[in-house]
Amino acid sequence: MAPKSKKNAKGGKSEDGEKEAPLQAVVHLDAFEERFLPFTLERPRCLLTLANTPLIEYTLEWLASVGVEEVYLYSGNHTDLVEEYLNTSRWTKATSPFAVELIRSTSTSIGDNMRNLDQKEIMKGDFLSVYGDIVANIPIDAALRGHKVRREKNKNAIMTMILREAGDDHRTKDQHMRRCFVIDPVTDRCIHYEQVRPRHSPRLNIPDEVLKDHTDIDMREDLLDCGIDICTPDALAQWSDSFDWKMPRKDFVHGVLQDYETFGRTIHTHILTNGYAARANTLRTYNAVSKDVISRWAYPYTPDMNLVADQSYQLGRGVVYKEGGVILARSSTVGKKTVLGKATSVGDGSLITNSVIGRRCVIGKRVRIDGAYIWDDVSIGDDTVINTAIIANEVSIGRKCEIKRGALLSYGVRVADGTVIKEDTRLTRTKRKRDHDNDEKLDRDPTDTTIVGNSGSGFELLLDEEEDEVISALRLGLQDTDLTLDDTPDISSLDSGPDSETDPSHHPRTQSFASNASSETASTRHAAADFHTEASTSIFDALASHQDPDNIQLELQALRLSSNAEDSHVRRAVAVAFGRYTSHLVETSEGKKKSVNEAVKASIPGNMRLITSCVRAPAEQAEFLLFLQTDLVHRPQGNKILVFVANLLAENDVLDGEGLKLWWEDPRGKANEGLEKVRRETEQVVEIMGEDDEDDGEESEEESEEE
């Protein structure tokens, strides 16, 4: 499958007249991990479906969106299946946006892929190195420009890692291995990288010379590794020089940084604060990214975008997606955030919530399914209950069965009537047979009827003791994370604001809020923080991408209901999102700064309903202003933004004199110097609105006397 020449290639000429190399990408379809066992015994991870679309589709769609012209795919296991899929996809047709080549190799690591790529000498310039399990909508123009500028100044700048801001304890981060990036904030250079096992490594081992040479460093454990790198051909040469390097971070980055004093090669970072980028590389993140796609946080990559040619999903009420030919019995119920594939049928009295159901599934009567991922051609008997499990293609589950939380049922497994599958059980019909060359071959094992029942088919997959990382990943993916789509914050809750990961009561700048929160339980505060980060970030991203305010309001309402959030939580999220977005417009608007007044007029009038829907009574007005004031303390020109926003909302009758007075007199709004300073100029708005209210009151009294 050799690359095709593209008539519409985007390669142009540089400023000095030389023809620029086309943007190329290498995609690692096999991460050489076993975190998706038992499914990956029979199919490659890149072809596993996420929201009923193969993972590889999301990756290739994103590469097309950023202007990649040539794509080289490295496949490990199941290369024939990958080739078969590609040959029937749009990516190998004449209308494909890029040339694509599937490279067969005997690689056993990412390092082998990169060394093989170096030998082929097909990379003409800077290129992207990504995994085949990425879901992203981020532009990379700024990252590419920054990388190019650094290269022009220093040819030893061989790689840029694209990272995404997250919280220290965000659930989508790797819980059995924490990644710490030590960065020079002036040059964005990564000067130390370390993978730390929680509870095993109490401290970082930062070399003395790093601390001596850099007076200002950022130690970041809050960054999410998107698995997207901008590399130079020189980076490939480093892989070739070190034949024992296998992994991009643990080996390559760590090794290059260790050898800096000898060779002077540098690795840099580009940290994203907006947009969506994540890997579905564990069961934990598979759940999180699925949730984001269904909830439309990864827009435009949603089920109803129909990325695959024969898909026909439509979005319905309650964030339910259905393809044509779905048959629902009258007494069946399909709850919120559910996906139903073509030709699936659901029997009388069945209830499906928070789940993804594939094509041609037959679901019997009185079935209960919650938080499950059920792929194609699955049959489920009457009165069966399935909770937070993954069910692969062509599985048959009998009548009156119970599939408990965390169970994984691989391809073709058959469960007999009345069988209970225990929590975290992994069932398969295929075992690994290793020969002396360590090449894995598939084989069948006898059925264990004690697990799947007398007429069942399959057995439990037990991992070897030495596969410690796999066991940890599976346990963290299933035992510690409920697969239900609504019970945990998703990856879209990544927020760039300094206070985004904490409740206001926990921040020293807003200590006056502590009394407000002291009566809340820890779990309540945690849930509120989860909702806030998710909601405020999604609103900001929607505003930045100029989405219809009606759609933003609809999604916010759906999130509020699913999170059981209070009205005050919604007001806080809206206030913070508008404060952040307005500040964003002031600082950068397509390279041209806006005045504060222009930024406020660009952000609020067209999206006013987001504010008016949650701000009505004077007490609500005061609370909204308090949240906005608190957010703007750390924003550039926050004092100006606050006065212009307050004035605009007052002019549009969203704020009245009573609401402004309540806010102004609230002791929490003047608890420290920062809060006092940011609101100082807004006093004139409070005074004017207070005078207007007095005048209105006098006029009303005069009219009453005349009557």
From TrEMBL:
It is found in: Cytoplasm, Cytosol. One of its GO terms (molecular function) is guanyl-nucleotide exchange factor activity. The keyword Protein biosynthesis applies. Residues 510-524 have a biased composition (Polar residues). Keywords: Cytoplasm, Initiation factor, Protein biosynthesis. Residues 525-699 form the W2 domain. The keyword Ligase does not apply. GO terms for cellular component: cytosol; eukaryotic translation initiation factor 2B complex. Its main location: cytoplasm. Residues 1-10 have a biased composition (Basic residues). Component of the translation initiation factor 2B (eIF2B) complex which is a heterodecamer of two sets of five different subunits: alpha, beta, gamma, delta and epsilon. Subunits alpha, beta and delta comprise a regulatory subcomplex and subunits epsilon and gamma comprise a catalytic subcomplex. Within the complex, the hexameric regulatory complex resides at the center, with the two heterodimeric catalytic subcomplexes bound on opposite sides. Belongs to the eIF-2B gamma/epsilon subunits family. This is Translation initiation factor eIF2B subunit epsilon. It comes from Meristemomyces frigidus.
